[in-house]
Amino acid sequence: MLVLHPQSSTPLVVQIVEGLRRLIDEGALRSGTKVPSIRQFAHAHDVSVFTVVEAYDRLVAQGLLVSRPHSGFFVRRRARGPGGTAALPPAGAAGTSFDAMWYLRKVFENRHLSMKPGCGWLPGEWLFGEGVKRALRGVAGDELDFGGYGDPKGFAPLRRRISDALAEQELGVAPEQVLLTQGSSQALDLAARRLVRPGDVVLVDDPGYANLLFGLRFLGATLVGAPRTPQGWDLAALEAAIVQHRPRVFFTQPRLQSPTGSVAQLAQLHRVLQLAEKHDLLIVENDICADLDPDPRPSLASLDQLARVLHVGSFSKTISPNLRVGYVVAHPDLVEDLAQLKMIAGLTSPELTERLANGALTEGRWRKHLKGLRERLARAHELVARRLDDLGFEIFHEPKAGLFLWARHPDMPDAGRTALEAAEHDILLGPGHLFAADLQPTPWMRFNVAYSSDERVFAFLESRRRAV
Question: 146 lies in which domain range?
C-alpha cells in the first residue's frame, strides 16, 4: 500500500516514485500489471494531476513503467536476474543524468506553469510581436514559391543583412559564408555533427549551455569543462585542460553566457585565440545574446576573422523563438559542409520564417525595440539581484544585461532537490547540474530575470531557506 505524507520534506513526486519502486521490488506490483490512471491516482491520494504526471514520467524513464497509447501505464516486463528474480535497475542508476534529461524535457512540455524563473526565453510581451505582425502583412503580398525547398543556405536578403550587421562588428564575411538555421540549436548541432566524432574529447564552458551539452553527450563526446569566472574563463585551468586532454574543439559562449551571465574580457579573448593557435584548436562561438548587450565589444570571430572560429547567432531571443531563425558563419569550405548536413537532415530551408525575420528587421522599429528591451532587462536585473541578495543568495556575477543571474544559497545545498520542491508549487527553477559538464549536484541555480520578479517565487525561496 502506498501512503503519501504531504507534510514531509521529501517532495510528493519523489515519494510516489520511491513508493511505486518499492511495491514493484517487493512483488506487490508484478510485471505487466496496470497501475492506476493518472487521474485515478491523483484522486485517490489527493494530489495534483501534474504531480502524478511527473512521477509516472520519471518511472517510465527509469524503466519501471511503460506507457501504452489509449491503454495507460503498466509495470514493465524485465529480464530475469540471477535466481529467476526480475532484474530491476538500481535506485541510483539513472542518477543526476536522468534527472537532468527529465527536467530538460519538462522545460518545453510544461510552459503552462505560471512561474518560470528557470526558463531560457523572454516573455511574449517582451518580444518583437508588432514587428512580426507587420512583416506578416508584407510577406502576404509577396509572390511565394510554396512548392520550393528554399535556398540551401537560406533567404539571400537576410543573409546579406546579417553580413552587413557583422561588418559593423568588424567581422568581414560574404553573404555566401552565412548559413541560416532553425535557431542557434540547429547551428550548434550542425557544427557538432561536422566536427565531433564518438569518443572525441570536447572542451566546453563549465557551467555551460545545457542544450549543447546534452547534444554533445548524445553524439558520444567526452566533455571536459573549462571553468567560468565573472571575467570569462579560468585561463590557467583552461590551458591545463587543453594540454592534458588535447581536445580538437572548444564550444564556448563568451558574451552574456548561459547560465552565469559572465562576459569574457578582451585580454581573455586574445589569450584563448593564442591557445587555439598553439594547440591546433577549433572554436565554436555561441553569440546568441549579442543583441542584448548594450556595450559594443569584439567577438572571438571578429578578432580571428574565422580562421579558427565558427560564429553562431540567433534572433530567437529578440524577435520570437517561434520563428526559429539563427545562423552560423565560418570559413567558406566549412560553410559548404554545414549546408550539406543541413539539407541532408531537413531537405529544405524554411524561407517563409526567414522572410518574416528579415521583414521584422527591416520594418523600421528594430533598433528602438532592442533599446527598449535592453533597458527593461537592466531594470529586471537590478530588481532580481536585490531580492536574491536580501534572501542571502550569493550572486556569481551581475552583468546588468542579458537574461540570467547565477546564484546559490548556503541553506540550499542541492539545487536539484529545490527544483523538484518548486515544481510542487507551480514554479520551474533552473538547477545547476543541468549546466554542468559532469552533471554533478550543485547548489547553483540559474534565474531568468524576465521571469523572476514574481513575489511568489521569492516567497517559495524564503520558505526553503527557513525550512532548513
Answer: 129-362
Same domain (yes/no): 385, 357? no
178 and 291 within one domain: yes
Cβ atoms of 13 and 59 within 8 Å: the answer is no
Cell of 267: 585580454
Confidence band for 91, pLDDT divided at 50, 70 and 90: very low
Cα–Cα distance, 432 to 415 (Å, whole number)? 6
Task: Please give the model's pTM, rounded to 2 decimal places.
Answer: 0.79
Q: Is residue 6 part of a domain?
A: no
Q: How far is CA 71 from CA 53, 67, 447, in A?
A: 15, 8, 39
Query: Do 239 and 198 belong to one domain?
Result: yes
Tell me the Cα Rg of the chain. 24
Model confidence at 296: pLDDT above 60: yes
From residue 96, alpha-carbon distances to 8, 203, 445 in Å are 22, 21, 15
Measure the CA–CA gap between 177 and 157, rounded to whole angstroms: 13
- The string of DSSP codes covering 286-346 is E-TTGGG-SS----HHHHHTTSSEEEEEESTTTT-TTT--EEEE--HHHHHHHHHHHHHHH
In the block, cell 521490488 appears at 25
CA distance 2 to 44: 11
